């Protein structure tokens, strides 16, 4: 099971955080800080796996992370997930973001947080991997976006008439 | 889109804040705005405000006032509002909040909504934060959706079902029939979900596990299809066809094939095929291969396949990619217990990984190396481990030292080597060793009497070089105190002779006493050592006297007390000094005296004695709640059993002592009566002591069959007002042919002088079969009248 998915930048500022187990708000922030400390100490050419910090469950949980430019993508998983599989999943996630946002960069994630959550919701649900097929994910996300757009458009019209 | 614009504006404003304080101010203003919005605005505005609130929440500011808004927005009819409402619910609500119950109804309605996207929102939220009650309420809906025709909904419903089973395991049977049929789906997403569901079902219920074993051929077919299929662009990751699904199926096959020959046979060919055909140049292929290897090792596979698996792991170990090396060491760790020899072949590579720069790899290599230490390779492994210790990162140090000590204790080829190793560790990493190392080492040194001279010389030299490692200093002081005469004699076969004078020794000890690096415990050691030397040396007794009297006014209370007492030894009790300070006897590892800070020894002793009164108390309580002689304590009896005791020496010696005390009664004819005899096991009761209010009896079990009786345990129940105390039994194995007996003393305290009855339940294993029987003793044997027994 995936316990948490975190995205933060090189200075530790959270860009997206999704917890699949309940923690209080304070604990969540502490977990983000602790994870940042552990992950930022790593060199460039070491392996992508780490033991989890104390707050997130200690040595039974692993942190699997990937560093892209200015962002760290960290998945905290327990022993029932395949480590290499999660590494691939991070890759698929980032590639999906890239397709949805067209050459995604950190600013895109900052200003469109809800869209990132929607994309993630198509891939991981309740801590379990839902869909890994990139084209399928993108189709669904686009369809949902269309549905939203059509609604707001209808909403807009009466307003403009006033 | 309006909501995004406003959200983006706010984000821009927040980002423009230059300090943390400024940011806090901005966010407070925004939160106040949001709160106002929630109070008056209409739903459209609400959703924008909630989006802003969620952003603020991510940054770490409190956002609980948005919870009711989520509930309201979820109930709205518009998709965009529902969407943000559900997202808010997932982020802000959890099962502990009452608001979460309010959305149950909305979720229920949305699950039957005409739009699949609304349904999916509901499913997603339920799977993320559904509490047990919500799951119970909505489980039938989910089950219905599992059989829907829309594969998008089906896959989401499947994972939702997994969440429900995790929260409410009793509902597992509801999903079992549908799960089986989902395996025939073509859509990979649904298949993936189905495999996860089946894995979860098998985990919860072994009966279901048997049922799903029949699905093994189907799973094998699916895998074969994936492995041999031609290039399919949608599922392809780095040349492997849907590796995620392959990995999941392999994991499920592992669970199904574990300990089951038929299932394992069905998988053998497939596993061989996957192992040989998968291209492992990219991570995806490695993931599949690694999973295959783990599955092969976990089921009853044929030996050729196992060899193949270990070879694959060996190849992984040599891979340049650190990730692969890490993974292979993790999997080797899992199989080192069962296939020790196979892993030993790769010992060289593993030991090399100890020198890798990556901490994670080093950690794995350390664990694996410690598991691979054996009597054969102990010397070379220890060399490597000691080199590792000198360069290892601080977080791994204490683990390394305890691992080294364990290995040394189990496999040391000679005492001298053992002592050398421990000394080496203490000099390199003395600060990271466990507390019980010092007494353990001291005990080890006392037992190696031929090495006393060698040891004390080595320790003296180490002490002179460096007094910062407390454990080393403590052991050194103790040894110098004990064996100072050997040190001063100067000759020692195994070490180059160095002339040590009495002054040198006293200088060293005084340095320890005065140094600011020494802890109070170390000082205590040094002071006592100085005192002991007063009987071992001849010339400088006055110097010792002055040192000791100096410390009689020391601020540290412990030191002061010691100094004052030693002073008294010099003055008033000088005649006893030699006797008091003579050489200590060899300490036995498990003896009651060996409690010099050895916490494990203390625990061993006090726990059984703590356990016994607690268990006796527990035993008598339910007995008193049960009215006269009704059923024995059902089911939960075993934890109440005072059975751990037989493995512990001190307690059995104490109970043996007790029996010995009563042994004085033995010459007088004590009545022993057989109360139970069946299947070769006979139980006798012997009255040891009887007063008006107390009876002490011994239950003796003996075995006349051909085979040993094992796991022999006795449980007893007595009437309400009687207090029962069962002492530790002498063991729980009764040898065959009447060669031995198991005895257990029972003390009954009968303050109200009711008529004593006792019901005893006997349980034991004989030839693999477990037997249980109950016998009731209606009256106890007294020296005058025999007992009456009614078998049950």
From TrEMBL, chain A:
Positions in coiled-coil regions: none
Localization terms from the record: Cytoplasmic vesicle membrane; Golgi apparatus
Domain AP complex mu/sigma subunit positions: 1-147
Cited InterPro entries: AP_complex_ssu, AP_mu_sigma_su, APS3, Clathrin_sm-chain_CS, Longin-like_dom_sf
Pfam families membership: Clat_adaptor_s
Annotated family: Belongs to the adaptor complexes small subunit family.
Name of the molecule in the record: AP complex subunit sigma
TrEMBL record, chain B:
Keyword Membrane among record annotations: yes
UniProt cross-references to SUPFAM superfamilies, sorted A to Z: ARM repeat, Clathrin adaptor appendage domain
Entry-linked InterPro entries: Adaptor_Complx_Large_Subunit, AP1_complex_gsu, ARM-like, ARM-type_fold, Clathrin/coatomer_adapt-like_N, Clathrin_a/b/g-adaptin_app_Ig, Clathrin_app_Ig-like_sf, GAE_dom
Location (main, coarse): membrane
Keywords tagged on the record: Cytoplasmic vesicle, Golgi apparatus, Membrane, Protein transport, Transport
GO cellular component: AP-1 adaptor complex
Segments of this protein annotated with the region Disordered: 587-606
Residue ranges of every copy of the GAE domain listed in the record: 668-781
Record membrane topology: Peripheral membrane protein
Gene Ontology terms describing biological process: intracellular protein transport; vesicle-mediated transport
Sequence similarity: Belongs to the adaptor complexes large subunit family.
Name used for this protein in its record: AP-1 complex subunit gamma
Originating organism: Carassius auratus (Goldfish)
């Amino acid at each position: 099971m995936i316990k948490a998915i975190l995205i933060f930048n090189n200075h530790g500022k959270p860009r997206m955080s999704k917890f699949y187990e309940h923690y209080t708000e304070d604990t969540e922030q502490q977990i983000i800080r602790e994870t940042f400390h552990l992950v930022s100490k790593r060199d460039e050419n070491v392996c992508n796996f780490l033991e989890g910090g104390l707050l997130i469950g200690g040595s039974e949980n692993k942190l699997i992370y990937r560093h892209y430019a200015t962002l760290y993508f960290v998945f905290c998983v327990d022993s029932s997930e395949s480590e290499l599989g999660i590494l691939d999943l991070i890759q698929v996630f980032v590639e999906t973001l890239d397709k949805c946002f067209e050459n995604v960069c950190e600013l895109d994630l900052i200003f469109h947080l809800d869209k990132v959550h929607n994309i993630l919701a198509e891939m991981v649900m309740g801590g379990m991997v839902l869909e890994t097929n990139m084209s399928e994910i993108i189709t669904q996300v686009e369809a949902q976006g269309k549905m939203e757009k059509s609604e707001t458009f209808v909403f807009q019209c009466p307003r403009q008439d006033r | 889109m309006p909501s995004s614009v406003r959200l983006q504006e706010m984000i821009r404003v927040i980002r423009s804040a230059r300090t943390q304080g400024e940011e806090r101010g901005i966010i407070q203003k925004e939160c106040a705005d949001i709160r106002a919005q929630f109070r008056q605005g209409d739903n459209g505005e609400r959703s924008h405000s909630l989006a802003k609130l969620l952003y603020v929440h991510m940054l770490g500011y409190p956002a609980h006032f948005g919870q009711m808004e989520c509930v309201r927005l979820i109930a709205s009819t518009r998709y965009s509002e529902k969407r943000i409402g559900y997202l808010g619910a997932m982020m802000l609500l959890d099962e502990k909040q009452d608001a979460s119950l309010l959305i149950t109804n909305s979720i229920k309605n949305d699950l039957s909504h005409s739009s699949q996207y609304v349904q999916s929102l509901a499913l997603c939220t339920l799977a993320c934060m559904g509490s047990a009650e919500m799951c119970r309420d909505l489980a039938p809906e989910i089950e219905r959706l599992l059989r829907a025709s829309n594969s998008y909904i089906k896959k989401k419903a499947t994972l939702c079902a997994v969440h429900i089973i995790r929260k409410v395991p009793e509902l597992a049977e509801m999903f079992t029939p549908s799960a089986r049929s989902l395996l025939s789906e073509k859509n990979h997403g649904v298949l993936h979900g189905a495999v996860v569901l089946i894995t979860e079902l098998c985990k919860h219920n072994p009966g279901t596990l048997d049922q799903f074993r029949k699905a093994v051929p189907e799973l094998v077919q699916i895998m074969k299809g994936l492995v041999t299929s031609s290039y399919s662009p949608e599922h392809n990751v780095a040349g492997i066809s849907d590796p995620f699904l392959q990995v999941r199926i392999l994991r499920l096959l592992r669970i199904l094939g574990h300990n089951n020959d038929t299932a394992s046979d069905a998988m053998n060919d497939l596993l061989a095929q996957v192992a040989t055909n998968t291209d492992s140049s990219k991570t995806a292929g490695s993931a599949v291969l690694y999973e295959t290897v783990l599955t092969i090792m976990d089921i009853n596979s044929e030996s050729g396949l196992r060899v193949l698996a270990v070879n694959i792991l060996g190849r992984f170990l040599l891979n340049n990619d650190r990730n692969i090396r890490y993974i292979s060491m993790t999997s080797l760790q899992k199989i080192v217990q069962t296939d020790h020899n196979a892993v030993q072949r790769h010992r060289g590579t593993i030991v090399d990984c100890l020198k890798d720069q990556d901490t994670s790899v080093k950690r794995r290599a350390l664990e694996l190396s410690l598991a691979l230490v054996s009597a054969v390779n102990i010397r070379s492994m220890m060399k490597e481990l000691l080199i590792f210790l000198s360069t290892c990162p601080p977080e791994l140090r204490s683990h390394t030292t305890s691992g080294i000590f364990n290995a040394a204790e189990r496999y040391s080829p000679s005492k001298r080597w053992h002592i050398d190793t421990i000394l080496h560790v203490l000099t390199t990493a003395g600060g990271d060793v466990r507390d019980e190392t010092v007494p353990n080492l001291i005990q080890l040194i006392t037992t190696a009497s031929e090495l006393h001279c060698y040891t004390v010389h080595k320790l003296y030299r180490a002490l002179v070089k460096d007094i910062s490692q407390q454990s080393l200093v403590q052991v050194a002081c103790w040894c110098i105190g004990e064996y100072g005469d050997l040190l001063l004699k100067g000759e020692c076969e195994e070490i180059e002779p160095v002339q040590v004078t009495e002054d040198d020794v006293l200088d060293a000890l005084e340095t320890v006493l005065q140094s600011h690096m020494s802890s109070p415990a170390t000082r205590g050691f040094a002071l006592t050592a100085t005192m002991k030397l007063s009987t071992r040396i001849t010339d400088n007794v006055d110097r010792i006297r002055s040192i000791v009297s100096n410390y009689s006014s020391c601020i540290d209370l412990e030191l002061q007390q010691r100094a004052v007492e030693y002073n008294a030894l010099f003055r008033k009790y000088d005649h006893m000094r030699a006797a008091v300070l003579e050489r200590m006897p060899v300490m036995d590892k498990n003896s009651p005296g060996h409690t010099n800070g050895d916490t494990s020894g203390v625990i061993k002793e006090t726990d059984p004695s703590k356990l016994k009164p607690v268990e006796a108390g527990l035993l008598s309580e339910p007995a008193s709640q049960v009215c006269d002689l009704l059923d024995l304590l059902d089911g939960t009896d075993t934890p109440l059993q005072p059975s751990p005791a037989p493995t512990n020496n001190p307690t059995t010696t104490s109970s043996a002592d007790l029996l010995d005390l009563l042994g004085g009664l033995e010459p007088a004819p004590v009545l022993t009566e057989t109360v139970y005899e069946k299947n070769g096991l006979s139980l006798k009761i012997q009255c040891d002591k009887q007063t008006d209010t107390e009876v002490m009896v011994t239950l003796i079990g003996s075995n006349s069959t051909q085979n040993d009786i094992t796991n022999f345990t006795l449980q007893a129940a007595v009437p309400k007002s009687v207090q029962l105390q069962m002492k530790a039994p002498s063991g729980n194995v009764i040898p065959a042919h009447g060669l031995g007996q198991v005895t257990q003393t029972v003390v009954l305290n009968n303050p109200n002088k009711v008529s004593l009855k006792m019901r005893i339940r006997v349980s034991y294993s004989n030839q693999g079969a477990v037997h249980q029987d109950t016998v009731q003793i209606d009256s106890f044997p007294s020296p005058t009248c025999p007992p009456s027994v009614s078998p049950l």
